[in-house]
């Protein structure tokens, strides 16, 4: 079988599957990934180098020729589909299972992409398309809410769990890749998604927190986040712990917003490190070195559950409130945002349905982080229970092999 991997970012589930396929004796693999040169600097590339060809994921004539010459039997894509024909068969894998539901327009675009590439929409039984699912609840959501035909939905589990449960390197082996002393102090991994345009959401469009985050003017529109992050870092460093900020692509943030983090590094020298997804894609390393993790409902935290360490979930709005603005940022169009309509689902899973501690208040969030630093087992049972409920065959350590078997049956 000849397999093309079309990866938005080479990390998490699509990375785990790529590594498993790369060493499979019966299959040939071509991997196309955004920011491939950044990936090659990472710990994973050092400890588990690819034998397969790795190219930049783009729409250039060069890339299209390489793909055409490779003649893939199937293309595995995550949340961004190729805009040119790559293979007859398409396999879609999600880039995480979390809370935020796919928006109505995004879902329409998803259906359009599948139709363009396979000649038939995902709402129909399609011999040339499959969508892999983490578990039964996820599968039911895809069928009932995303409009994917049940014949196209295949249960896999969580491929990245294979790497989290059996990593190719140790904390000691990667310590020199961090500027913070990860072997001498505990580390808090802070992963605030950009989805709300702010750490928490706002329903007031005129004073939208989205504008606070992405504004290009020189006034300080970031006071709320600045205050919270200063307080958070002060409390954590007072506990003699490091802070590792894992952020999305650097281009998504305004220079003014990024100044907040530069100021934090200056205020707490040697205790804070900032990593952006486009520059440091190997986020397995970040999970392994963290003692506590906090997020505002990024699906990245669900992989951390496998380590059964304290996890804190800061909800973007008050309890039972669904009036949320979502950000959409692109290099060409800049910032766009929209209010969720009453007919749309805000969440796939409710915010409280998580594998750790739930907070709605920023002060409570800081208190729970400190609590986690002193109570390492506080999320252990909830994390395991969540995974066993949401992820099919959650702790087998064999999800990638299941995935490969599904691919073999699919391609024939």
State the main characteristics:
412 residues, Rossmann fold, 18% strand, 36% helix, alpha/beta, 15 strands
Structural class of the secondary structure composition?
alpha/beta
Number of distinct beta strands: 15
Q: How big a fraction of the residues is strand?
A: 15-25%
Q: How many separate domains?
A: 2
> CATH superfamily of the largest domain, please?
CDP-glycerol glycerophosphotransferase, C-terminal domain
Q: Helical element count? A: 16
End-to-end CA span = 9 Å
Largest sheet data:
7 strands, parallel
Low-confidence stretches: 203-218
Please, what is the average pLDDT?
90
Structure report:
The chain is α/β, with parallel strands linked by helices and 412 residues long. The chain has two domains: 177 residues, CDP-glycerol glycerophosphotransferase, N-terminal domain (Rossmann fold, 3-Layer(aba) Sandwich); 220 residues, 3-Layer(aba) Sandwich (Rossmann fold), CATH 3.40.50. It is 36% helix and 18% strand. It is built from 16 helices and 15 strands. It has a seven-stranded parallel sheet, sandwiched between helices. Strands 10-9-8-11-12-15 form a six-stranded parallel sheet, sandwiched between helices. It has a two-stranded antiparallel sheet with strand order 13-14. Strand 13 and strand 14 form a beta hairpin. Helix 10 packs parallel to helix 14. The chain is globular, with a radius of gyration of 21 Å. The N and C termini lie close together (9 Å). The relative contact order is 0.15. About 4% of the residues have low confidence.
């Amino acid at each position: 079988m000849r397999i093309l991997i079309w990866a938005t970012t080479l990390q998490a589930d699509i990375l785990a599957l790529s590594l498993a396929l790369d060493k499979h004796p019966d299959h040939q693999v071509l991997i196309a990934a955004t920011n491939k040169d950044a990936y090659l600097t990472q710990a994973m590339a050092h400890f588990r180098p690819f034998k397969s060809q790795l190219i930049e994921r783009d729409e250039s004539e060069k890339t299209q020729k390489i793909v055409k010459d490779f003649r893939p039997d199937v293309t595995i894509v995550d949340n961004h589909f190729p805009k040119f024909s790559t293979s007859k068969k398409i396999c879609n894998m999600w880039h995480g299972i979390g809370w935020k539901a796919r928006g109505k327009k995004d879902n329409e675009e998803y259906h359009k992409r599948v139709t363009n590439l396979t000649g038939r929409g995902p709402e129909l039984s399609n011999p040339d398309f499959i969508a892999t699912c983490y578990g039964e609840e996820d599968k039911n959501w895809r069928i009932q809410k995303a409009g994917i035909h049940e014949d196209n939905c295949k249960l896999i589990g969580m491929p990245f769990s294979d790497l989290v449960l059996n990593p190719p390197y140790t904390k000691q082996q990667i310590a020199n890749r961090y500027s913070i002393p990860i072997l001498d102090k505990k580390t808090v991994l802070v992963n605030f998604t950009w989805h709300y345009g702010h750490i928490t959401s706002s329903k007031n469009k005129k004073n939208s927190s989205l504008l606070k985050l992405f504004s290009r003017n020189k006034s300080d529109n970031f006071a709320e986040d600045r205050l919270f992050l200063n307080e958070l870092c002060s409390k954590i460093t007072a506990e003699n712990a490091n802070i590792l900020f894992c952020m999305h692509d650097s281009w998504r943030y305004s220079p003014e917003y990024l100044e907040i983090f530069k100021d934090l590094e200056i205020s707490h020298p040697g205790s804070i490190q900032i990593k952006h997804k486009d520059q440091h894609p190997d986020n397995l390393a970040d999970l392994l070195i963290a003692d506590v993790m906090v997020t505002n409902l990024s699906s990245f935290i669900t992989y951390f559950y496998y380590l059964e360490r304290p996890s804190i979930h800061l909800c973007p709005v008050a309890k039972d409130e669904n009036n949320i603005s979502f950000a959409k940022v692109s290099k060409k169009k800049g910032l766009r945002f929209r209010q969720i309509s009453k007919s749309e689902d805000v969440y796939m899973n409710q915010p409280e349905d998580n594998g750790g501690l739930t907070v709605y208040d920023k002060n409570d969030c800081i208190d729970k982080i400190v609590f986690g630093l002193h109570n390492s087992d506080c999320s252990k049972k909830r994390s395991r229970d969540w995974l066993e409920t949401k992820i099919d065959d959650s702790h087998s350590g064999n999800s990638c092999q299941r995935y490969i078997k599904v691919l073999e049956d699919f391609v024939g």
